[in-house]
Design a protein that fits this description.
By secondary structure, the chain is of the alpha/beta class. It has a domain of 258 residues: Vaccinia Virus protein VP39 (Rossmann fold, 3-Layer(aba) Sandwich). The chain contains 7 helices and 18 strands. Helix 5 runs parallel beside helix 6.
Length: 376
């Protein structure tokens, strides 16, 4: 179930960051499991984008191209917006705490580090210890590790489904499993836009990773361009496409540096109705190029503005692993879209605990910042 919770300054959110926490179970809170060593220094989420195949070559140093001087009024704003998921399809967050999270991915219960889970777990320690897979090793987001399987040895991959799309989960050495489920709220929004448009839409998915968002958009009826500089990620995305027997859907799989690609699209005059962009904080390109989010994000958004179609339905930015308020990307998005009308809504993506049954709301775990421009 996906919920949209909006809170404004001076108001309490019914289900956002200020929501009432779930009551702990009776008795003494469970001790931290033996495998649950805290990170030596808490790392922001998704720092693996520096070294994980997903983003080992996602972005290069921004080519020289000056920012366009924008004129006109800035779009109206809607802040703060909390986009909340209680899980969907084969995923939900069971419990969290002690810098860990316990998740359900299809038939498997998985324990992974989560620095932002500062509270004690709600469920007993034996529930955590009986997980099917536990990530151990380097607890830094950029570090490699291994998976421990307390019950029985599991295969490297297994089938999953979200929003009607089949894909493969995979136990990677960087703790991740091939999907970032907090993005469900953006994917559900995109799916609704495509299905309601009553016209062919073109969707650009930058830093597209394993292609789940691209498959959701294509299944809904969009023509999709998926860009990721990692050959391994593109290969995984094609596996996902084949698993769901979606080979005939109109998806272009582009293995290339994202900045170089959108600059070329701008020169060619190509346009898109929806753009999703999920850049890393830091990345290295295939030829040693360096990407720094704070340095290069303004130009990336500026180019995305130029390749939006006249009847565009949205530009979505997700930002992980940055030490900043959502207001930083919110104001940047408003400046980028100056003169375009519409509204910029920004805030956080959160996943709410859903318990063992997947239907018992608990605490909200913040996952990332986002900013989204829409025409109205």
């Amino acid at each position: 179930m996906v919920k949209h919770r909006e809170s404004r300054p001076g108001q309490k959110s019914a289900g956002g960051l200020g929501a009432k926490p779930r009551r702990d179970m009776p008795g003494k809170p469970p001790a931290k499991p033996a495998h649950a060593s805290r990170p030596a220094k808490p790392s922001p989420r998704h720092g693996e984008r520096v070294t994980e195949p997903r983003d080992a070559a996602t972005a290069s140093a921004a080519p020289e191209r000056p920012l366009i001087a924008r004129t006109g009024e800035r779009p109206t704003e809607r802040v703060p917006v909390i986009l909340e998921s209680l899980g969907a399809g084969d995923f939900h967050l069971i419990d969290s705490g002690n810098a860990l999270k316990l998740e359900q991915y299809g038939p498997y219960r998985i324990v992974r580090p989560e620095a932002q889970a500062l509270w004690p777990p709600s469920l007993a320690a034996h529930v955590w210890d009986n997980a099917d897979a536990i990530f151990t090793g380097d607890t830094d987001e950029d570090g490699m590790g291994r998976w421990r399987f307390p019950r029985e040895a599991l295969g490297e991959t297994w089938p999953l489904q979200l929003l009607g799309v089949d894909f493969l989960g995979r136990f990677t050495a960087f703790r991740h499993v091939g999907v970032f489920p907090e993005q469900i709220v953006h994917w559900a929004w995109m799916k609704e836009q495509v299905e309601a448009a009553k016209r062919p839409l073109k969707v650009l998915n930058l830093f597209g990773y394993t292609g789940v968002a691209s498959l959701v958009a294509a299944a809904a009826g969009a023509e999709v361009t998926h860009v990721d500089a990692s050959k391994k990620a593109i290969g995984w995305a094609r596996e996902n496409q084949a698993l769901g027997r979606m080979e005939k859907l109109p998806i272009r799989w582009i293995c290339e540096d994202a900045m170089k690609f959108i600059l070329r699209e701008e020169r060619r005059g190509n346009k898109y109705d929806i753009i999703l962009t999920d850049p890393p904080k830091f990345g290295r390109g295939p030829n040693g190029e360096v990407w720094h989010l704070f340095e290069h994000l303004p130009l990336m958004l500026d180019i995305c503005r130029e390749i939006l179609s006249p009847k565009a339905l949205g530009l979505v930015l997700t930002a992980y692993s940055i030490r900043a308020s959502f207001y930083s990307i919110h104001e940047l998005m408003r400046e980028t879209m100056r003169g375009a009308g519409g509204v910029v809504e920004s805030g956080e993506l959160v996943i709410r605990e859903a318990g063992l049954d997947g239907r018992t709301p608990g605490r909200a775990l913040s996952t990332s910042l986002f900013s989204r421009w829409v025409p109205k």
